[in-house]
Design brief:
Strand content: over 45%
Helix content: under 10%
Order of helices and strands: EEEEEEEEH
Mean pLDDT: 90
Low-confidence stretches: none
Number of helices: 1
Radius of gyration: 15 Å
Shape: elongated
Number of strands: 8
Structural class: mainly beta
Largest sheet: 5 strands, antiparallel
Length: about 110
């Protein structure tokens, strides 16, 4: 479940969490921060984890702050109770302004 991007310091931060009632046998999560450019989503940075998640595992990815439309994309492939699964989800989009990036940079000094 990806959450809306946040601006923290000079970075844009993306988070997602996994909710697992039953631990999967295999779990590969790729969490990406994506920005909109020319009508398509481009990946600025990704983080991958192959660890089996705890019942409520939190993941994070970050990249340098720059203005534009951003979202967090989560993709998970794995095996649960002997069955393969492939899950994809996107967060709510956030428009980041130059002022957002400036405020974040000033706050980290």
């Amino acid at each position: 479940m990806p959450t809306k991007p946040t601006v923290t310091g000079p970075s844009i931060l993306g988070n997602a969490y996994a909710v697992c009632d039953v631990p999967p046998e295999r779990h590969v999560l790729t969490l990406s921060l994506q920005y909109r450019q020319g009508g398509t989503w481009k990946t600025a940075n990704s983080a991958t984890s192959t660890a089996i998640p705890d019942p409520r595992q939190v993941y994070e990815v970050k990249t340098g702050c720059r203005p534009g439309l951003w979202r967090v994309h989560a993709g998970v492939v794995g095996t649960l109770q002997g069955r393969d699964f492939d899950f994809k989800d996107n967060s709510i989009e956030r428009f980041v302004t130059a002022d957002d990036c400036d405020r974040g940079s000033r706050g980290s000094r």
